[in-house]
Specification:
Radius of gyration: 14 Å
Strand order of the largest sheet: 1-2-4-3
CATH class: Alpha Beta
Mean pLDDT: 92
Structural class: alpha+beta
Strand content: 15-25%
Largest sheet: 4 strands, mixed
Order of helices and strands: HEEEHEH
Number of domains: 1
Low-confidence stretches: none
Number of helices: 3
Number of strands: 4
Length: 124
């Protein structure tokens, strides 16, 4: 599991990211990103940790076992990238239909590519 301060949990937070955030797509994932920090001042490290939420529809699979497996793989991939992600972002990963065939390494690669395109990873 992700630490509780890194989870996007409330409906209003999801709505804010969907309405105001930017969207980037890969083959199996769609990333929505919204910065909670004003760009004029650099964020303090502990004040605004990055938060992530996952959205997976029943259109992907009717079987909850498959949907939950995809979410577990995505959480593990994001947990590995978490130390490299800048603070102050709200992220939503929307799963696309091609994700059913993806394994952990493909999710890790696509997630890292999306975060790099959004300039959210340190060093990019």
């Amino acid at each position: 599991m992700l630490p509780i301060q890194n989870r996007l949990r409330h409906r209003r937070d999801f709505s804010r990211v969907y309405q105001r955030g930017t969207r980037l797509n890969s083959l199996a994932l769609s990333l929505r990103a919204y910065s909670r920090v004003k760009q004029a001042h650099p964020p303090e490290e502990s004040s605004h940790p990055v938060r992530i939420g996952f959205s997976i529809s029943q259109k992907i699979s009717k079987r909850a076992v498959i949907r939950n497996r995809i979410k577990r793989r995505l959480r593990a991939a994001f947990r590995q990238l978490l130390p490299r992600v800048q603070d102050g972002w709200d992220l939503i990963l929307v799963v696309r239909p091609d994700a059913v065939e993806c394994d952990y390494l493909e999710f890790l690669q696509q997630l890292e590519q999306l975060l790099a395109q959004a300039n959210i990873l340190h060093g990019n």
